[in-house]
Amino acid sequence: MKTEVVVIGGGPSGLLLSQLLNKAGVATVVLERSSREHVLSRIRAGILEWGTVELLREAGVGARMDAEGYPHDGTYLTDAELMVHIDFKALTGKQVMVYGQTEVTHDLYDAQDAMGTTVIHGVEDVTIHDLDASEAAVEYTLNGERHRITCAYVAGCDGFHGVSRETIPEEKRREFERVYPFGWLGILSRTPPVHDELIYSNSPHGFALASMRNENLVRYYVQVPLTDKVEDWSDERFWTEFKRRIPSEAAARLVTGPSIEKSIAPLRSFVSEPLRWGRLFLVGDAAHIVPPTGAKGLNLAVSDVYYLHEALIAALKSGQSAGIDGYSKRALARIWKAMRFSWQMTTMLHRFEGEDSFAEEMRRATLRHLADSETARKDLAENYVGLPF
């Protein structure tokens, strides 16, 4: 098989990149190790930056998002004593969109099917070759048979545990990591949200987040030790703990119900440089991981896609190499700013085991500074709704 770009990874970043390239007349083949059903069963982020919203529209996959998504003008940060409203619309003129990553992936699969894109599921033992030659190659096993695709470029959208980053020689990679000593226990429940905007709560009992997918589907989280397991948490235990971590006025409105999904996600900050190695480019979680506190994971992958699709189209359609040569530097500049914001939000809102009273007072002082300073609220709002691509 031969194509222009092989996209390794059939999640939202890989599918969006393929969609944008296909719309520009660039041929792609998408390889995914999991079944489509498994990809669409993953419960992930639900907050889209406005730049992400606009790029999905440009890609031709925004119709259902616009019909069913929920634009939000702001969010709340709170502790046991104070609720601070961050008014995105007033401070930046922008909003965010509540629309689940699973729904984005559904829309992208539908669009790729309509275009007739080759998306191959169930691939194993993927290897990448000839990155310094005139053509690259990707090999994989499917149903016991070995296959080979030659291409001009390879986009590694295969996540933290994928083969793409590991293809770059270890001595040529610089990796930066911070692992946080806690995780987020999250549940989905078909119940009405406690508030019409998200609430990030820093309580004496630990962090909690009240999020949502729609008017009758919530996504709630509580901070838990990394030693906890999902089976340790009954629904009753979760609701009791969540209720005591959110503000009393929200707790009074809380409607509980059975969970339809429950999982624990560890938190880490991770960046691998460079994002380009010959004809290979890293995108999204293959190159960087952020804590979910600032709602940056999917959105950061989308900004990578934005930079890379422009660069690949220029290289393949016009022979211009400036974009692909500058991709890594351009994307990393935005990645590190998002890393800073996510780290700042995580530090501000979570309790760390063994911390002293100074750390607690710093969190309290930060929240009060946000309450008193429009400049501070604007800085947070600008980062939350998304820095320009």
TrEMBL record:
Protein's UniProt keywords contain Oxidoreductase: yes
Query: Which InterPro entries does the UniProt entry name for this protein?
Result: FAD-bd, FAD/NAD-bd_sf, HB_mOase, RIFMO-like
Which one Pfam family would you cite for this protein?
A: FAD_binding_3
EC number(s) given by UniProt: 1.14.13.2
Q: Which GO terms describe its molecular function?
A: 4-hydroxybenzoate 3-monooxygenase activity
The entry's keywords? FAD, Flavoprotein, Oxidoreductase
Residue ranges of domain FAD-binding in the record? 2-342
State if Transmembrane helix is listed as a keyword.
no
Q: What is this protein called?
A: 4-hydroxybenzoate 3-monooxygenase
* Species annotation: Salipiger mangrovisoli
